[in-house]
Amino acid sequence: MKKSFELKVIFDWLENFFGENMKKIIFLLFFILSIFCVYIWYSYAYNHQWSVNREAEYLKTKDGGIVFDREKLEDVAEKERERADAYQKTIGVEVDIFRLN
To answer: Does the predicted TM-score (pTM) go above 0.85?
Structure first.
């Protein structure tokens, strides 16, 4: 019976503590989480840890460059010109199927 009384006292104390100090606790958790996120951001942005081999491999993949296909560019430009010309054409009425006479 004494254990249940002690648990009740402990739970009452915890409820009072958290009830009175909830804003402070939430602010403290937010502050700690913010500091942790800034630390992670800083470590990834400024303290990158690539080995020489990995950095060389990355640079080798970036040296390939972009292959410029002039024919494909001209085909796309020609299709765009054709679409612009088709848009500019006026649409005429061919045959009116609802005409009465």
So the answer is: no
Residue 63 three-state SS: coil
Positive/negative CA dihedral, 26, 29, 33, 34? positive
Beta strands in 3-94 (DSSP E): none
Q: At what angle do helices 2-20 and 22-46 cross, to 10 degrees?
A: 70
Q: Compute CA distances 55 → 51, 52, 58, 61, 63, whole Å.
A: 6, 5, 5, 10, 12
Query: What are the tokens at 49?
Result: 């840890």
pLDDT tens per residue across span 49-99: 778 888 888 888 887 777 788 999 999 999 999 999 988 887 776 777 777
CA distance linking residue 19 with residue 31, whole number of Å: 20
Cβ–Cβ under 8 Å, residues 25 and 18: yes
